[in-house]
Amino acid sequence: MNDLKTITVLFRAYNSLEKIIRDDVFQYGLNVSEFGVLEALYHKEQLSVKAIIDKVLVPNSSMSYVIENLVSKNYIKKVQSEKDKRSFLLSLTDVGRKLMDKIFPIHKHNMRKILDILNQDEEETMQKALVKIGKLSKSR
Amino acid sequence: MNDLKTITVLFRAYNSLEKIIRDDVFQYGLNVSEFGVLEALYHKEQLSVKAIIDKVLVPNSSMSYVIENLVSKNYIKKVQSEKDKRSFLLSLTDVGRKLMDKIFPIHKHNMRKILDILNQDEEETMQKALVKIGKLSKSR
DNA sequence: TAATTATATTTCGAATTCGAAATAATTACA
DNA sequence: TGTAATTATTTCGAATTCGAAATATAATTA
Question: Is the model's pTM score more than 0.85?
C-alpha cells in the first residue's frame, strides 16, 4: 500500500460510530465520555480514577471534569482509598446501576447490529489490525 | 461475534492515531482539524466550505471557526462564489502551500511507517470493513 | 529519617467543539 | 411571479477538552 486511505477510513468509521453512540446516549442525558465511565464501572464494580483513565482514553484533566459531573448526577460515588490516599475509588450508585441496567443491553444490541454488517472473518481481521494500531501510543 | 470489543479497539486505535497526528502537527502550530482542511486543499486546489465539511468530518459550526483561524494565519483564502453567492470557495495561499510542501511528505511518510505494521491483506481487509462502518452515519 | 523522585488527582485558563437558531441566497412549485 | 422549502454558512452560548502547573501522598534512596 502506498497511500493514507486507511487513516481516512479509520477516522470516518470512528466519527460515524461516535456519532451514533453520542445520539444514543444523549437521550439519557449523557455524553460519550460519561457513558464510557459508566460502562467501565458496570463491568468492573470498582475502579480507581487512574484505572478509568486508562480504560476510557480521556486525559486526566478532562476525566476530573467527567467524574465530577457523574457524581453530581448521582450516578457514581467516589471514595478516597484507605490503602493509598492519593487514589480515589469509583463505583456506581444504585441510581447509576439502575440506569445502566436499563440502557446497556439496548446499547449493546444496537452496536452489535451495526457490527453485524461485517462478516466474522472481516471483523476478526479488523480487530487484530486495530489492536496493533491502538498499541502505538499511550493515548493522551 | 458477541461482544463489543471491536468498538473498543476501534476507539483505541483512533485515539492512538489521533494523538500521533496531533503531536506531529502541533509542531507547526496546527491542530488536527486545521491540518485536515489544509490536506484537503493540498489535494484539491479549491473546495467550497460545504465540500470541506464533508471531507474533514467537522460540523459546520465548528468548521467556521477552523476556517477563520486558517484565514487569519494566512494559510488559506476564502472567496465568495460568483455562481452561488451562498457558497464560499477555499484555497491555499502561497504561504499555506509552502507549509504543506514542507510538512505533508514527512507526515505521509510517518503515517505510512505506522500503517506498515500491518501486512497488506490485513490492511486491505480492515480498510474494507472500516468503509462499511463509515457509511453508517453522515458524521455530524 | 530527610530529601528526592514518582504517582494520582485536581485546578486553571485557553482552545476547541458542539447543536440550535439565525441569515442569506437559491430552488421548487403553486 | 410570489411564496415556500431547501441549501450554505455564520453566530451564539454552553459544554467539553486540552496541556501545564499545582497539590497531595507514597516510594525510593542517601
Answer: yes
Q: Give B133's contacts (C-beta < 8 A, 6+ positions apart).
A: A13, A16, A17, A114, A117, A118, B10
Q: Any chain B CB within 8 A of the CB of A79? A: no
With H, G, I as helix, E, B as strand and everything else as coil, classify residue B91: strand
- Cα-trace Rg, chain B: 17
Q: Cβ–Cβ of A6/B120 closer than 8 Å? A: no
Q: For B56-85, how does the pLDDT look when each residue is reduced to its tens digit (9 = 90+)?
A: 999 999 999 999 999 999 999 999 999 999
Q: Which domains does chain B have, with CATH numbers?
A: 5-134 (1.10.10.10)
Alpha helices in chain A (DSSP H): 5-26, 32-44, 49-56, 60-72, 94-115, 120-134
Q: Which amino acid is at A70?
A: L
Amino acid A65 CA to nucleotide D16 C1' distance, rounded Å: 9
Cβ–Cβ below 8 Å for A118 and B135:
no
The answer, yes or no, to whether residue B43 has pLDDT greater than 80, is yes
3-state helix, strand, coil in chain B (%, to 5): 65, 10, 25
Pairing verdict, β B76-80 and A88-92? unpaired
Q: Which residue has the cell 478532562?
A: A62
B:9-38 residues touching chain A, CB 8 A cutoff: 9-20
